[in-house]
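Structure first, sequence second, as always.
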């Protein structure tokens, strides 16, 4: 009589490449949206806009919903490209600083390139360029830390 499971092969480990990609593509836009909301939306709520939003729950929900929707549209492609590049360039056993450096550099570069493409290669203000680059770099760093902690490659054997 045969044993149950004697001929069952173990399931192959999840692909490190695709897990890294999905972490960046999934977490990058919401993280960038949060930073964007903090940088742009919170300072806009002053005496002039207080009457428009009246600081109601519905007004704040509409600001946050709009911010996250814009973040998904504007940050989706840079986050996916950063995830693809980081997954390709990061190897098993490398130190955490390399993963974070890749996330920061690639996040800043892809965010800046995508913003310039959306802007039609017109010269925006320096504040906009610095903030877009900072948002991409911060989201890349956080995604690198999440990737490093949640999806370390598994060794068979």
């Amino acid at each position: 009589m045969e044993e149950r499971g004697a001929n069952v092969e173990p399931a192959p480990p999840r692909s490190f490449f695709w897990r890294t990609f999905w972490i960046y593509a999934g977490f990058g836009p919401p993280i960038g949206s949060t930073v964007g909301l903090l940088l742009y939306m919170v300072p806009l709520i002053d005496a002039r806009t207080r009457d428009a939003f009246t600081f109601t729950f519905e007004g704040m929900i509409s600001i946050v919903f709009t911010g996250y929707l814009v973040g998904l549209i504007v940050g989706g492609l840079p986050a996916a490209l950063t995830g693809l590049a980081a997954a390709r360039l990061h190897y098993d056993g490398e130190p955490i600083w390399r993963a974070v450096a890749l996330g920061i550099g690639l996040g800043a570069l892809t965010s800046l390139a995508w913003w310039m493409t959306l802007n039609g290669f017109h010269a925006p203000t320096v504040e906009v360029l610095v903030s877009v680059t900072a948002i991409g770099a911060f989201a890349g760093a956080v995604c690198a830390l999440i990737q490093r902690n949640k999806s370390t490659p598994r060794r068979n054997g």
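Margin note: Helices lie at 16-44, 47-53, 57-89, 96-118, 126-150.
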